[in-house]
Amino acid sequence: MWRIPVADSTSVPKTALTALQQGGVIVYPTEAVYGLGCDPDDQHAVEKLLAIKQRPVEKGLILIADNYGQLLKYVDDAKIPMDKRADIFSSWPGAITWVMPAAKNTPKWLTGQFDTIAVRVTNHPTVKRLCQELGKPLVSTSANLSGQDTVTSIEMAKSEFDQQVAFYVDEPLGGRTQPSTIKDVMTGKIFRG
């Protein structure tokens, strides 16, 4: 009988997907900057990401997805008024992050001190592929220490994080010059322009 070897935590992942499935944190390209990402359902991985970034859990995190269906587990879709849906879906896929009511079971390691969750459906081909392969969204936060300049190259990311990150996805950014706009779906308030 053939046995499939089980990777231990010291093994080097061969792909970004393997790293994510093993609870690792990856660096990957987004629309404007490189991001730190992990499996949003893996509390240990999210805590590792927050420690690497030196970000307090209370601030909450963004989820980035291939399609809205991947976000439904985390979003209380029933609370989103019909008249707001045109704004949301006309902006996606794209670089607009919407702050939406969080589903009741969405973990606090994602929402932080809030009863909302920030989510985005991306048009970046690399991120779309990662989310398709993982079958769910990724945590998406800029690949920099909290309060520091954003990272716009893999070399900068490697210099900043070295071996703390399980895998570096060395593919191009999406061509935007600014990180995604963040808007509240209920009020229209812009948190980041």
UniProtKB/TrEMBL annotation:
Source organism of the structure: Pseudoalteromonas porphyrae
GO MF terms, alphabetically ordered: ATP binding; double-stranded RNA binding; L-threonylcarbamoyladenylate synthase; tRNA binding
Occurrences of domain YrdC-like (ranges): 10-193
Superkingdom of the source species: Bacteria
Biological process, per Gene Ontology: regulation of translational fidelity; tRNA threonylcarbamoyladenosine modification
Pfam families from the UniProt entry: Sua5_yciO_yrdC
Keyword Transcription: no
CC terms in the record's Gene Ontology section: cytoplasm
Name of the protein described by the UniProt record: Threonylcarbamoyl-AMP synthase
Main location, first listed in the record: cytoplasm
Keywords assigned by UniProt, alphabetized: ATP-binding, Cytoplasm, Nucleotide-binding, Nucleotidyltransferase, Transferase, tRNA processing
Documented EC number(s): 2.7.7.87
InterPro entries listed in its UniProt record: DHBP_synth_RibB-like_a/b_dom, Sua5-like_dom, TC-AMP_synthase, TC-AMP_synthase_SUA5
Matches recorded under NCBIfam families: L-threonylcarbamoyladenylate synthase
Cellular localisation: Cytoplasm
Family: Belongs to the SUA5 family. TsaC subfamily.
Catalytic activity entry: L-threonine + hydrogencarbonate + ATP = L-threonylcarbamoyladenylate + diphosphate + H2O
